[in-house]
Give the backbone structure.
Amino acid sequence: MGSKAASPSCMSSLNWVAPNSPKLSLKSSNLSLRTNIAHIPSFGATNNDHFRFIRVMTRATLDEKDEIAPTPLLVQEAEKPNRAVEESVKVLKEAAKTRKVAAEKVLSALSVIEKAKIEPSGFLETLGGSESPGKTWMLIFTAEKKLKSGRYFPLTAVQRFDAAAKRIENGAYLGPIGCLTFEGRFSWKKRVLAFIFECVRIKIGPLKPLEIGLGQKQDREPSNVSKDPFFVWFYIDEEIAVARGRSGGTAFWCRCRHVPTSYSP
């Protein structure tokens, strides 16, 4: 009767919590105990007494079902962080689209995403593509350390990440006035992207860009354990990306169309 009392969903829940549930081992011993009692001869017991014993057994089995029924709530609790991340991503995408979502809501969404510790195995390819020149991302919102406050970024700032060539370009674009860009190389480890800028390019109006080298050694690998700048990425999909910089501030970007680089005519 105990095997009929647990539905398939309950059994799957039992499997899910089995490694850490002391209640299951207790129930297992109770089940074997009832089996032993069921085979004890009922000396002098009447038929009515036997029926009463069966009713007691049935009631005990139903009580056990009542005890394991709440178990699926553990699964629901485990799914709550995922739903919270999904809702937070929606908030950020709406903020990127309209720039009208309140800063407090954006900060709350960033906090949820940071704490979720999402698996970063596919982040790099999503961020920088599988071939050059990579992908471009527009900076939407920046927050201070510990997410105390934040605001929408007022300028057109675009970063290009090229995962195939391990190159990064960071630029501020001022329309027909010109642009200022920094280009260099990066390294990637787990969710950390460390980078070194090798040159800066300044372009004013229709004039050719002026390139200035920053004197970085070509053989040195960027590293977050040195003084190199870096990003710690918490979330990246095909539309938005969230990261924290070396200074402790957090920002999020949205995917954008290719912006002409500073060396374009």
Residues 1-78, 261-265 have pLDDT under 50 and may be disordered. Residues 51 and 147 are 67 Å apart (CA to CA). The radius of gyration is 30 Å. Residues 72-98 form the longest helix (27 residues).
